[in-house]
Design brief:
The chain is built from 11 helices and 11 strands. The protein is an alpha+beta fold. Strands 1, 2, 3, 4, 5 and 6 form a 6-stranded antiparallel sheet that branches. Strands 7-9-10 form a 3-stranded antiparallel sheet. It has a two-stranded antiparallel ribbon with strand order 8-11. It is globular and about 60 Å long.
Length: about 375
């Protein structure tokens, strides 16, 4: 059993500026009834539409379809999330729309009086923020067969998104986030809460790899605002061309962090689906580098950070599944793959893992 202090930070203490994010992981998402959502959308946006629930971990997300078939995503923020973080996400989407309008990201829909967000009171009296985004058509990549062409498209697509975000700044961009792969050391205190056995030993060995080889180098790495959650659930493709990306969604984990952490986080989700667990990640990273090459130092730590992503996925998801069993299926969706990936990497030295990740594969590309 894993018990996680919702206010943990370095060595278990609350990190500076991290209370809001920790609270968001510890506070249940809003749960408005469809009729309530429908009334809110009509009042704020003048849209009379049907409402369908969408999956979400911290927030309540709803698909809204108007009478003419136009669809939107209505987001009701976790009441513990600060308004500044919502403004950060809105500003990033509007920055991308201005500087790189071809990027397949949602557009912000304004209220009837021209606002990008509004505030509403929940049944318990808590105040929270609501906003509307355009709905992007397509199917989640997780519902399609994995192919080399798809991984190449994802790698290039992420590099282009990172280029679109390069130079974007916001006061809330440096907020604290437990899902920041470059801050994996903050979960060290939780290792002893795992049941004694192979998994605890496995987790401890990868935490040592991070603290010994990655943590001392972080200050020397390029950093910028990154999506930080570019995986098979958050990238959409066309039904008739499953290597053509039609949407990049869920900017809720976005933050200012090392750029290579973005690449490692995304590459981690490509370890399943092939006999060689490095085949998919190598194809993805090679395609990314064809657009936005990693520096020598970034190349040296990218495999370590890929393992760190699996480590924090395992630790955080097990805690949250115990705390919110009603949302267990969603919270645990990446957990089994995370433990499997750590097992697959356990017998490799960090240099061997790096070389396999950066070596061209037969069906992929690294040029």
């Amino acid at each position: 059993m894993l018990m996680l202090d919702p206010h943990l930070g370095p060595q278990g203490a609350t990190p500076e500026g991290g209370a809001s994010e920790a609270a968001a992981l510890s506070t249940p998402a809003p749960d408005l009834a469809p009729a309530e959502v429908q009334a809110l959308v009509a009042r704020l946006y003048g849209i009379d539409g049907s409402v369908k629930s969408l999956a979400g971990e911290r927030d309540q997300n709803c698909a809204v379809e108007s009478a003419d078939g136009t669809r939107y995503v209505f987001k009701i923020s976790n009441p513990s999330e600060s308004v500044s973080l919502v403004d950060f996400q809105i500003a990033a989407l509007e920055h991308i729309a201005r500087t790189s309008p071809s990027q397949p990201v949602p557009r912000v829909v304004r209220t009837l009086d021209g606002r990008a967000r509004d505030t509403v009171a929940l049944a318990d009296g808590a105040q929270t923020t609501v906003r509307m985004l355009t709905y992007l058509d397509g199917i989640q990549i997780r519902e399609t067969p994995r192919t080399a062409a798809q991984r190449v498209a994802m790698g290039k697509g992420l590099a282009e998104l990172n280029l679109a975000l390069r130079g974007f700044t916001h006061p809330a961009a440096t907020h604290d986030l437990l899902w920041n792969v470059s801050a994996a050391h903050r979960l060290t205190v939780q290792l002893d809460s795992l049941v004694e056995g192979p998994r605890r030993a496995l987790a401890r060995s990868f935490m040592m790899r991070f603290t010994d080889h990655v943590l001392p180098r972080l200050a020397s790495l390029r950093a910028q605002v990154i999506h930080n959650d570019y995986h098979l659930y958050n990238v959409l493709v066309a039904p008739d061309d499953q290597a053509r990306i039609t949407g990049i969604i869920d900017f809720g984990d976005m933050l200012h962090a090392p750029l290579v952490g973005e690449v490692a986080t995304a590459a981690a989700f490509h370890m399943t689906g092939s006999a060689d667990p490095f085949e998919g990640p190598a194809q993805f990273v090679g395609a990314y580098q064809a657009v936005l090459p990693l520096t020598e130092l970034e190349q040296d730590v990218v495999a370590d950070l890929m393992a760190s992503r699996h480590l924090i996925t395992a630790l955080i998801s097990e805690w949250r599944a115990l705390r919110y069993p009603e949302n267990r299926a969603y919270i645990m969706r990446h957990n089994p793959a995370a433990w499997e990936a750590l097992s697959q990497m356990a017998d490799l030295s960090r240099h061997d893992a790096r070389d396999r990740l950066l070596t061209p594969t037969r069906n992929g590309t690294s040029s």
